[in-house]
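Convert to structure. Protein one:
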Amino acid sequence: MVMSVLLNFIFPPSSLVTAMSVISIVSLASFGFSEIRGKHFNYSKFWNVNTGNDAAAQRKMKLSGRAGMLLLYTPAFLAGVASFFIFPHESLRSTLLQSAVTLHFFKRVLEVLFVHKYSASMILDSAIPITLSYLTSAVFMIYAQHLTRELPEPPTNLMNPGIVLLLVGISGNFYHHFLLSKLRGKGEKEYKIPKGGLFEFVICPHYLFEIIVFYGVSFISQTLYSFSFAIGTTLYLLGRSYATRKWYLSKFEDFPDHVKTVIPFVF
């Protein structure tokens, strides 16, 4: 019954796609729950939260903020570019999916180079699993789409809503990253309470719009893997944003009580 309903919206999945979908949700959800429990990936404001005074932890290899963020996004971007040569012109849906994945990670690379301002390092041990997560997600979203090339289209076509969600997500994510970059003057590294845009209602609107991006991608793709990755990303970013709000509450006595975590007025 459930599968028959799902098949109105997704292509029939292969065993490989099903397995990778389960792995994607479970791994990303576990990362999100780890954030809530206080075991953070060491970047941004949490870059040294797990190291403490332990000598071995302090000796872990650190990357500059810019180098670390480039490492996160560049392999996934290059995978998107390579896909146009590996799977050229398979279908409109496939080309849109490849374009969406490539555009998203290209935007992130450009932001790393020209928008973001950095106040901390990144621990290599944290950069590697995030990099692999983004890379494998890009590869498997594209490959899962490739596997649908001879299958009939799902009865319900979500491509057009997906394009709208993608553009809204990319625009909103960029705008709030831009607002964050304007918080600090030249040479400043201290954190401030973000203002403007949806920062007036939630502390992580950039995460909200990143979630929207991946639901847009999943609507364009309509594969089980793309939907699974969107759900997993939601769970991870909910955990990360919860930890972020908790951090702001601990650092700023004047943090507004009405500012939620990631969903205005709700959470």
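Protein two, convert as well:
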Amino acid sequence: MEIQLKKFQSFQPPILRGIETTSDCESWLEDVEIPFDSFEYPDERRVNLIGHQLQEVAKSWWIATKEALEQSGTMITWKIFKVEFYTRFFPSLYREDKRAEFENLKQGPMSIEEYVTKFSTLLRFAPHVTGNYEAVIDQFIGD
């Protein structure tokens, strides 16, 4: 595990203190996922490593959340971590606004690169679409 931690931290992933803005929390999650995706870390390793990037309020939140999940018998996967993370650090109104923005997203005057970036960023707020490849494609092309 120590070797994996050093490898992960060689990317210099950011620290989350739990007092950042919603936008900063979103950027933090994107930034910590880069090394996870690069090394193709499995869920279990991601969950174990992420605790090292949390401090102060965020660390306290994760310790309490992890304990509650374990006591309820929930297997903590990366997906579960992200659900809990969004619930805690993204107010429901913010998530609803982002979901509506995703559902109403059209390419319009954006370049394809801009559209893909915006689509990908907002997709995380539409879990009802994320698990269904055909629904993602339909939303992307505007059907």
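The chain has a mean pLDDT of 88. Residues 61 and 88 are 8 Å apart (CA to CA).
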